[in-house]
Amino acid sequence: MRDNSGVVNYGGTTQISQSAIGHGARVMLSADRGKGQEQAGRADVGVITVKGNEATAVHRVLGLHRAPSGGLPFWEGEVDARGDVIRVAAIRALAQGQRSTVMAFDHLRRHYKPAVVVLTGIAGAIDPELPIGDVVVATQVVYYDLRKETPDGRRHRGEEKEAPAAVSHAVNSYFTDHGEPAHLVSTGDDGAVHDYRVHTGPIGSGDAVIADAESEIIKYLKAFNDKILAVDMEAGGLMQAFHEQDGPDVVNGWAVIRGISDDASRRKDDAEQGHAAYRAAMVLCSLLPYLAVDGR
């Protein structure tokens, strides 16, 4: 055998990581990569928000602090939930809609490897018995934007997915303990005390902003499943990102928490968004000890 000062491989597999070979070789570690490139840790629960008031509510209620990583605006913290410390990481999606939600899910998964990801924020009610100010917890989503355009009109092709059984069991346990619907109380910035209800049921999701209670989308959703409570623009992206994930550090489950800010009609406005976002964040906080589902 000849002298060798490098690496010799006779048909095997060699993997070299954070290493260098040769005279004067150097390795640039993560600490040398510049500000904002530090590695994040792990989280029990990842949270995705979309609008600014949704993100602010989650940060405030859970007591999260800024923790940017890789140029991404993460927030993180530890929440004392009934004696258990739950590690939470949150990110605000870049834009409304399904596509940015998919990317936000992937960012959380790569940087924090959470057991469960929860989409938290506001939605519009399509159930006439669901008042503005109540909150919906969903583990079942109907994506309605799949459709076929024909000379006779538009034909919707809904796609329905459910969260894994472990998350559905966790949500069921929450409502077993708190009642169904659950009754919660919150105190506003003005000191006023408000009580509201928390429901569980499916929601519809698509890229359309719905401001017509008689729209063909709402009629289709009610015909597809008359138990659908509300509609949003991001839950379909969450369920699809979960469905198509791969690799060793997969997320074990997902859930959606939506405060009702309007009734998806022509009366739709932004007046109640802040209150709805805050209540959704409060429900998230009360759900945390149930949602820390880790099958690893």
What does this structure look like?
The chain contains 6 helices and 15 strands. The protein has about 300 residues and is α/β, with parallel strands linked by helices. It has a single domain (about 40-290), classed as 3-Layer(aba) Sandwich (Rossmann fold), CATH 3.40.50. Strand 3 (about 75-80) and strand 4 form a beta hairpin. Mean pLDDT is about 85; it is low at about 25-40.
Features of the shown structure:
two-stranded antiparallel sheet; 26% helix; 296 residues; Rossmann fold; alpha/beta
Give me the secondary-structure topology.
Blueprint: E1 45-49, H1 52-62, E2 65-66, E3 75-81, E4 84-92, H2 98-112, E5 116-125, E6 135-138, E7 140-143, E8 147-150, E9 153-156, E10 159-162, H3 165-178, E11 182-187, E12 193-200, E13 203-205, H4 216-224, E14 230-232, H5 235-244, E15 253-262, H6 273-291
Parallel strand pairs: 1-4, 1-5, 5-15, 6-12, 7-13, 13-14
Antiparallel strand pairs: 2-3, 3-4, 5-14, 6-15, 7-10, 8-9, 11-12
Helix pairs in contact: 1-6, 2-5
What would CATH call the homologous superfamily? Nucleoside phosphorylase domain
**DSSP strand tally:** 15
CATH architecture: 3-Layer(aba) Sandwich
Order of helices and strands: EHEEEHEEEEEEHEEEHEHEH
Q: What composes the largest sheet?
A: 13 strands, mixed
Query: How many domains make up the 3D coordinates?
Result: 1
Q: SS-based structural class?
A: alpha/beta
Whole-number mean pLDDT: 86
CATH class: Alpha Beta
Quick rundown:
The protein is an alpha/beta fold.
